[in-house]
Amino acid sequence: MAPKNRIIIDTDPGVDDAMALLLALSASPEELEVAMISVTYGNVPLQSCLRNAVALFHVLEKEMAWRESNGKPLYGALNAYKPIVAVGACHALEEDELVADYFHGADGLHGVHEAHPHLSPADTWRTLFEDAPVGSATAVEPPSFSRYFTPSKTPSHKEMLRILRDEPENTITIVAVGPLTNVALAAAEDPETFLRLKELVVMGGAVEVEGNVTPCGEFNCSADAIAAARVYALTSPTPSSTMPPTLVSSKSTLGPYPANLSRQLKLTLFPLDITTPHELRKRFFNDTIQPLIQAGSPLAEWTETFMNGTFAKIESMLGDGSEPALSLHDPLCIWYMMTRDDPLWKAVPKLEDIRIETCGQWTRGMHVVDKRVRARPGEKDTTVQTHPEDPRDAVIFDDVPGDTRGWLNPRKGNRINRMISSPGQDIFADVMMKKLFA
């Protein structure tokens, strides 16, 4: 049976990204196919993120061998499909340096590679993603480096576009759980191919709640607000109305989108509003994991190190002695893809015009919503009247005097499908732990 959902995961593997990848690969073959893992920068530099992705597959090889020898269930999607792993951007579109916060430690996984060198791949994995220098005699890595993924030396945004061209329209969903730089590069290079997507699922932003890296900014969006604004703009009937301004000092080489695109992007947003309450608590995690470590599970041993490193970090930040919990931001997006037909998933009743602040001194990355109670002329009739001699010359008659940036214009602004509730924030941690550790 073909999978219900085929996905590309664009990720910056730190702790919750690793848990999200594990959840996706543990899905049944009927639930999910991971066609590609696109690696980007994030809390740590790009090469650390890539090392963590490769290490995850290395650990899973050992884990599946251990499970097979002990008669335990294997990961379904992992064994049924072999995703491409490709490498993307190393910094934001208009920044020369990475803005990393190292919340997950210097390596992104709280020192797991030093703690468990036997669970980390040899450094020869790097050759899988790099072209050998001209004239060198560098040995080619054998194809058996990993039975579970196919490495690519093509930039990840180009691999995204290739898959979207090769596969039928409306069959591939991108789940973006890191900064949106790779996604923005794909959209800019070939907008029409990019819009063959079935859906773009984004973990990012804070709408009605505070941010997690600034008072109003969430990390993924703040890390590349320009990329987020460009991607969100594709949900608009008029993308130019919400594109980031072009500044004289801008370093961007990405131009505007074509004036007439064939369709709008369907973007489903998982902001901190919904992801933060879905928590995995320290005591529950350790009660589950310790018997598996004693039984010899490589995966349990690996995850215990970075999860308890995370809990220790959260404890130090809270400072009140309360039990720490990890918010399952990224895994929640994967759970949505595995169960998206469940009627308990609820989105806002009407698509929202959410825009990204890209220039603010204190508000970069902020998700801005117009909360004014104002009439929106023409909202019921969004037909664009055109010049009779040139139908391409659209003339819009529903502008409101004094409405700067077209917040009240039904032809302008973004159209975001924001998720507001799941099948159960109290049950998700248990569901995830059972899927991962069976």
From the spread of the alpha carbons, the general shape counts as globular
Strand order of the largest sheet: 4-3-2-1-5-6-7-15-10
Describe the sheet with the most strands: 9 strands, mixed
Number of strands: 15
Number of helices: 14
Our estimate of the beta-strand percent is 5-15%
Instruction: Summarize the helix and strand pattern as letters.
Output: EHEHHEHEHEHHEHHEHEHHEHEEEEEEH
Measured between the Cα atoms of the first and last residue, the distance is 23 Å
The chain-level mean pLDDT equals 90
Protein name: Nucleoside hydrolase
GO molecular function, one term: purine nucleosidase activity
Keywords: Glycosidase, Hydrolase
InterPro entries: Inosine/uridine_hydrolase_dom, IUNH, Ribo_hydro-like
How does this model look, in words?
It contains 14 helices and 15 strands. It is globular. α5 packs across α6 and α6 (181-189) crosses α9 (225-233). With 438 residues, it is α/β, with parallel strands linked by helices. The strands form 4 sheets. The chain has a 9-stranded mixed sheet, with helices on both faces. Strands 8-9 form a two-stranded antiparallel ribbon. The chain is 33% helix and 14% strand. The protein has helices at residues 15-26, 46-69, 76-80, 112-115, 156-166, 181-189, 191-194, 219-223, 225-233, 272-275, 282-295, 298-318, 329-339, 428-437; strands spanning 5-11, 32-39, 84-87, 150-151, 172-176, 199-203, 267-270, 279-281, 325-327, 346-347, 354-356, 367-369, 385-387, 390-395, 417-421.
